[in-house]
């Protein structure tokens, strides 16, 4: 892991087309700006983890089309 010190207004580059700019520094938070091409996904890690967990759980669900049809029929009867 590369660790850098940056002040408000300073930036760093990742490759040729991603720039991270320090916008504001407070006691407990740092506000950053990210300039990246539209095809580059930029996600907060906690959001990425939620999406990854959701996808993992979706793969674990094993329901056949027949089971879904039966459940739908029973709901329609109500």
UniProtKB/TrEMBL annotation:
Pfam families linked to this entry: CsrA (PF02599)
Database matches in Gene3D superfamilies: Translational regulator CsrA (2.60.40.4380)
Main location per the UniProt record: cytoplasm
Subcellular location: Cytoplasm
Key words of the record: Bacterial flagellum biogenesis, Cytoplasm, Repressor, RNA-binding, Translation regulation
Keyword RNA-binding attributed: yes
Repressor listed as a keyword: yes
One term of GO molecular function: mRNA 5'-UTR binding
GO CC field: cytosol
One GO-annotated biological process of the protein: mRNA catabolic process
InterPro entries on file: CsrA (IPR003751), CsrA_sf (IPR036107)
Known partners and oligomeric status: Homodimer; the beta-strands of each monomer intercalate to form a hydrophobic core, while the alpha-helices form wings that extend away from the core.
Similarity comment: Belongs to the CsrA/RsmA family.
Function, as annotated: A translational regulator that binds mRNA to regulate translation initiation and/or mRNA stability. Usually binds in the 5'-UTR at or near the Shine-Dalgarno sequence preventing ribosome-binding, thus repressing translation. Its main target seems to be the major flagellin gene, while its function is anatagonized by FliW.
Record protein name field: Translational regulator CsrA
């Amino acid at each position: 892991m590369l660790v850098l010190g940056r002040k408000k207004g300073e930036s760093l580059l990742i490759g040729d087309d991603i720039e991270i700019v320090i916008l504001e520094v407070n006691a407990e938070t740092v506000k950053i700006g990210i300039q990246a091409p539209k095809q580059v996904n930029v996600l907060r890690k906690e959001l990425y983890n939620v999406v990854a967990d959701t996808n993992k759980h979706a793969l674990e669900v094993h329901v056949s089309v027949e089971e879904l049809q039966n459940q739908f029929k029973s709901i329609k009867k109500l």
